[in-house]
């Protein structure tokens, strides 16, 4: 099974002015602090099951949010981190994390050694997501997103 590759293409967006019956979205902003990682995971765990996604997709979304939020926390100079959960047609779930900048040009998976305590987050995201990527955010920040697919 081939792993999804990182892409810098913008992820699909809903057309302005229209509403799809299967469209759901939640946006929340948290302080760039270690305790906020758990808060972001809880938001995923409380929202995504109610949108009709199976347990596997909920688990994957929780892990992806945790990894993307942690990367924004560790690798940028952000004070606040914006998170977005978006479900389209009850079959595709997007997890997005936007930082305020101060980091590198974009996320890049590392090859973590056996003794390394970190460096596996984006490899996990790549393994869990159907697609993932990044794009420029507002005011010099970055948005890193992952697309999760699952039949409800």
Automatic annotation (TrEMBL):
Histidine kinase/HSP90-like ATPase domain segment(s): 31-130
Gene Ontology molecular function terms on file: ATP binding
UniProt keywords, alphabetically: ATP-binding, Kinase, Nucleotide-binding, Serine/threonine-protein kinase, Transferase
The keyword Metal-binding is assigned to this record: no
Source taxon at top rank: Bacteria
InterPro entries noted in UniProt: Anti-sigma-factor_SerPK, HATPase_C_sf, HATPase_dom
PANTHER family per UniProt: ANTI-SIGMA-F FACTOR RSBW (PTHR35526:SF3), ANTI-SIGMA-F FACTOR RSBW-RELATED (PTHR35526)
Protein name per its UniProtKB record: ATP-binding protein
Organism, scientific name: Streptomyces lonegramiae
């Amino acid at each position: 099974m081939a792993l999804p590759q990182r892409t810098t293409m913008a992820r699909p967006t809903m057309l302005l002015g229209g509403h799809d019956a299967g469209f759901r979205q939640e946006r929340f902003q948290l302080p760039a602090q270690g305790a906020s990682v758990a808060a972001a995971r809880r938001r995923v765990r409380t929202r995504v099951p109610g949108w009709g996604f199976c347990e596997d997709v909920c688990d994957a979304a929780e892990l992806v949010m945790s990894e993307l939020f942690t990367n924004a926390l560790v690798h940028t100079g952000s004070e606040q981190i914006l998170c977005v959960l978006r479900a389209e047609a009850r079959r595709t779930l997007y997890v997005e994390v936007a930082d305020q900048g101060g980091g590198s040009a974009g996320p890049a998976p590392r090859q973590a050694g056996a003794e390394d305590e970190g460096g596996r987050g984006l490899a996990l995201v790549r393994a869990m997501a159907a697609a993932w990527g990044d794009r420029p955010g507002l005011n010099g920040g970055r948005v890193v997103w992952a697309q999760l697919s699952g039949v409800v």
